Amino acid sequence: MALEVKFPRKSGKRGNQGLEKLRIYGGKPLVGRVKISGAKNAAVAILPAALLANDTCIIDNLPYIDDVTTLADILHELGAKVELDAKGRISINGSKMTEYRAHYDMVRRMRASYYLLGVLLAKFGKAEVSFPGGCAIGTRPIDQHIKGFEALGAKVELEHGVIKVSADRLIGNEIYLDVVSVGATINIMLAAVKAEGTTTIVNAAKEPHVVDTANFLNTMGASIKGAGTDTIRIKGVKELSGCSYTIIPDQIEAGTYMIAAAATGGDVTVVDVIPKHMEAVSAKLLEMGMEVIEGDDEIRVIGKQRPRKANIKTQPYPGFPTDLQQPMSVLLSIADGVSVITENVWEARYKHLDEVVRMGGNVKIEDRVAIIEGVERLSGAPVTATDLRAGAALIVAGLSAEGITEISNVDHIDRGYEDIERKLVDLGADIERIDENGKSRRLKLVTSRQRAAVGAGL
Ligand code: EPZ
């Protein structure tokens, strides 16, 4: 049955998750199969994009995570008809919407609300969205998004913390991105999809979620060619219609479980993935001595031995993804030898390593470079998640460590990982959630029948 919005958050009462903790009794190898959810970073672009249709869009394989429920709330507050069902399917109809302003109270809850700029500009010829600001991983400029809107003929102003974009007409143009930006690439596609003439984005981002958003827009009737290459051509169309669409699997969630398998000396198969999207991670794990077996839509990682050292340089896709640098740095902390990480995308994405040091890690950070001398084993400690992937990294650390790790600020993790405790418990982890009153919530292991159903992709 479909639920009208006011989505129940799976992970606890809204507003209290900041006080919740995850307690991990480490040292147990993860073993089994885990079904990967829909991609967060595709969902946060595709949901607002659905507002451009003149009818209902039904989107499947939605990850049930806080970023998605927050965004669904925002779309509802903007006047769209939004329904989410328990199977991870959402229907969105923005045809009756008139609101083009997204206030601070709405957008401060999630950074990716910058996609509302492109969408509302394309839909109404104007948009007013509070400036998203920086975050724990570094300053997050949107100059390339603005450059794109201006190239299409929009006027852009920043007033009292609000970005105001308006245009009488949007006219296609050639836009060269000075940096490869996922957000700018998608936002320009969204703004240009109904513009007059053709827009060309040069030096575009090639991430799977860029391609997925383009595919979704094309399913609605857009004419976008070249997504997945560094030149994207968007021929403006007059109207977009409702459609049904299935979101791709989450590359970063899959990578996190693959790394956790290696870090715990486990044997995990990530199910329902696109192995091509995982090539950078698979190659690194192989280099580190792990066994990686690719199937059509699954990858098995066997951590038979202590990982060998490796060097990582984060890059836009198809390079090694920055969003997996944090979990990977934990694996390198227990690898044999000295590894070097160069973080080329975000300037402050090493905060989790301070916590890893508290767990016995041996790390030196110089600007964007982290030098990690592997130790045999981390030891459990109370730690704090400073952002989403830092949280995922600390889970990997806690799973592999000896003793108990207690992770605070779990709300960061709930933003982006669906059912993380359930999935980990099913793989044999010993993990419990401690609520704000100190009460423990421990999930039971699923039956082998349920496990078989997951294996069958049900
Ligand atoms: C997306 O952020 C992801 N978020 C991030 O994932 C991810 O880390 C990032 O892409 C890189 O892959 C979503 O998709 C919602 P960018 P985005 O624009 O689009 C600079 C996670 O954990 N830049 O590709 O905001 C910027 O400073 C999150 O899931 C400009 O200089 O990232 C950065 O150095 C965290 N000007 C680089 O480009 C701009 O106008 C890449 O940023 C835009 C970006």
Tell me what the structure shows:
The chain has 458 residues and is α+β, with helices and mostly antiparallel strands. The chain folds into two domains: 15-37 and 249-453, Alpha-beta prism (UDP-n-acetylglucosamine1-carboxyvinyl-transferase, Chain); 40-246, UDP-n-acetylglucosamine1-carboxyvinyl-transferase, Chain (Alpha-beta prism). It contains 15 helices and 26 strands. The strands form six sheets. A five-stranded mixed β-sheet has the order 1-5-6-4-15, covered by helices on one side. It has a five-stranded mixed β-sheet with strand order 23-24-2-25-26, with helices on one face. A hairpin with a 2-residue loop joins strand 21 and strand 22 (369-373). The longest helix has 13 residues, at 251-263. The protein is globular. Residues 1-14 and 451-458 have low confidence and may be disordered. Bound molecules: ligand EPZ. Residues 41, 44, 112, 137, 140-145, 179, 181-184, 205, 322-323, 345-346, 388-389, 416 line the site of ligand EPZ.
Task: Give a brief rundown of this model.
The chain is built from 15 helices and 26 strands. The chain is 30% helix and 24% strand. The chain has two domains: 15-37 and 249-453, Alpha-beta prism (UDP-n-acetylglucosamine1-carboxyvinyl-transferase, Chain), CATH 3.65.10; 40-246, UDP-n-acetylglucosamine1-carboxyvinyl-transferase, Chain (Alpha-beta prism).
List the helices and strands and how they pair.
Blueprint: E1 2-4, E2 21-25, E3 31-35, H1 40-49, E4 57-60, H2 66-77, E5 81-85, E6 89-93, E7 101-102, H3 104-107, H4 115-124, E8 126-130, H5 143-151, E9 155-159, E10 162-166, E11 174-176, H6 182-192, E12 198-202, H7 208-219, E13 223-225, E14 231-235, E15 244-246, H8 251-263, E16 267-271, H9 279-287, E17 291-294, E18 298-302, E19 312-313, H10 325-333, E20 338-342, H11 351-358, E21 362-366, E22 369-373, E23 382-384, H12 388-400, E24 404-408, H13 411-414, H14 420-426, E25 430-434, E26 440-442, H15 448-455
Parallel strand pairs: 3-16, 4-15, 7-8, 11-12, 19-20, 23-24
Antiparallel strand pairs: 1-5, 2-24, 2-25, 4-6, 5-6, 8-10, 9-10, 12-14, 13-14, 16-18, 17-18, 20-22, 21-22, 25-26
Helix pairs in contact: 1-2, 1-7, 4-6, 5-6, 6-7, 8-10, 8-12, 10-12, 11-12
Bound molecules: ligand EPZ.
